[in-house]
Amino acid sequence: MNRKIIFYSIVVILIIIIGVLILNKKEVRKNENVLVVGLDDSFPPMGFRNENNEIVGFDIDVAKAVCERLGMRLELQQISWASKEQELNSGNIDCIWNGFAYTEERAKTMTLTENYIKGKNYFILKDGITVKSQYELEGKKIGVQSGSSQQLDLENSEFGKKIEIIPYSDNLTAVMDLETGGVDAIFCSNIIGNYLIQTKNKKYETIDSENISVSNGSVIAFKQGNTELRDKIQNVLYELAKDGTLRKISEKWFGRDMITVKEN
Fold first, then answer.
1. For a FRET experiment, which of 60, 63, 126, 134 has its CA 20 to 30 Å from that of 158?
2. Do 108 and 25 sit in the same domain of this protein?
3. pLDDT digits (tens, 9 = 90+) for 91-108
4. One domain, residues 25 and 69
């Protein structure tokens, strides 16, 4: 009996210690004026690790520009994309900033910025495949990143009921499986897809999606109700759009201006 009491006492003490450490960490971040960005570090070209194991990408450059303008220190924190909402709600991160697509569902549970980059969803197939329409993919295996808006769109669509949806931890793994025949196609944003196709230096076929989703671009997500931080970053995005900084970053990563932020 005494052993059980000792055991449970130790567990309670550990829980209290962990809670105190978490609260202290959050307080330190607040005092140091730190912005903790949660991201999937294998999501090129938005955020990914280069050959030197450094996290780089379009969103990383934009976040750096925003933090520099605000006088904040940027802290990049890799998270599981499937549990991104929990990371945000727990306060472990300040925002999700990683090619995060707008959906009405997300708008109901998180505080979002305006769209800052445009794009659409499409299917990627192996070179030589003669499929001309998504409806020719019915009955096939379609790869998609787990926890992505594309996965949700497929699952909620009529077309999604006629295919086998195969989730992957990241799009790069899905592309590798496409090459070996593990799936028949991949459903993703053309922002991500075009970059993957270019960097792999291989030919692929692509077909537009129909009646699955309407792309509304990417947004930055904050804990529901945190309009103060959202507005602060949104206003800086307006400034960076006005002075051409966002356009230059877009041209660096995409070769063209894909920014949708309107000067305020």
1. 126
2. yes
3. 999 999 999 988 888 999
4. yes
Burial of 213 (0-12, 13-18, 19+ CB in 10 A): buried
pLDDT of res. 181: 94
On whether both 40 and 60 belong to a single domain, the answer is yes
CA-to-CA distance for 262 and 237, rounded, in angstroms?
A: 9
**Integer angstrom CA distances of residue 73 from 31, 65, 239:** 11, 11, 19
Picking from 57, 51, 53, 55, the residue whose alpha carbon sits closest to that of residue 254 is 57
Measured CA angle at 193 (ends 188, 196), to 5 deg: 135
**The pair of three-digit structure tokens given for residue 146, joined into one six-digit string:** 């787990």
Output the six-digit token pair for 194.
């075009």
CATH number at residue 166: 3.40.190.10
Give the number of domains in the chain. Answer: 2
- Tell me, yes or no, whether 130 lies in a domain: yes
175 and 193 co-located in one domain: yes
Query: Domain of 63?
Result: 20-117+217-254
Q: Report the distance separating Cα 105 and Cα 102, nearest Å.
A: 9
